[in-house]
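During the no-cost extension, the postdoctoral fellow (Dr. R.K.) reprocessed legacy sequence entries with the updated structure-token encoder. One reprocessed record is reproduced below for audit purposes.
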Amino acid sequence: MSELKGRLIAYIGGAGVSLSSEKTQTLQKINESSNVSDILTWVILPGLSLGSLLTIVGAAVVVCRFAFDVWSYFDQRRIKRGKK
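Re-encoded structure tokens follow.
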């Protein structure tokens, strides 16, 4: 049961990444009006800020973790079925 709770926390935490992205966009608008530079608003590539890059990387980590969990679940089932 604790493993399931851990997975749910990890996946819900990934949803928090997108929420923080929305907050970052709001902060970007505030910073643009006040001319204060924030590290998350630094432009790495044209059209891609550091905050957006962190959001993309966070989402990719969550998707990879989910794919690994699915793969390991089916692998464990295969191993258990092979032992019987």
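Helices lie at 2-34, 50-83. The first strand starts at residue 43 and ends at 45. The remaining legacy entries will be reprocessed before the final report is submitted.
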